[in-house]
Design a protein that fits this description.
5-stranded parallel beta sheet; alpha/beta; globular; single chain
Length: 135
């Protein structure tokens, strides 16, 4: 990535979100990349349950509400305000979700504000590899 992902406060905020069927995959991904993610310049935020699982795995994570209770919307607000610079949202494409409108809104806000969004591990890994080069 040629754009700087470190914000004016000197850190990068990455949002982590995962549908129930993908939470374990996201936590495994975080653990696999802990060398990059434990950098003092990286801050994680997450929706309620996902953030709790990340904390249990040893990652300091600021927790928002659960996704269905508004956590996706909270993160979208942070993206729109320029607080969150990247989103890892491991979606489960094989399940329906009652808060699909919030999910689509978050994706739209990322697109509007040109914020990198990874919806699967392969894309998230490419983004983290780019971050590692900037740190």
């Amino acid at each position: 990535l040629t754009m700087s992902l470190i914000n004016s406060s000197g850190f990068m905020e990455i949002a982590i979100i995962a549908h129930d069927g993908k939470k374990a995959d996201l936590i495994d991904f975080l653990i696999k990349n802990e060398a990059v993610l434990h950098n003092e310049k990286i801050r994680l935020i997450g929706t309620g349950t996902t953030g709790g699982k990340a904390e249990a795995a040893g990652f300091k994570t600021q927790r928002m509400l659960s996704g269905p209770l508004g956590g996706d919307a909270q993160i979208a607000g942070r993206v729109a305000e320029g607080i969150t610079q990247m989103v890892f949202f491991f979606k489960d494409p094989l399940s329906s979700h009652p808060h699909e409108a919030d999910i689509n809104m978050l994706i739209r806000v990322c697109d509007v504000h040109n914020v990198p969004l990874a919806t699967n591990e392969a894309t998230a890994q490419l983004l983290l590899d780019a971050i590692a080069q900037q740190l």
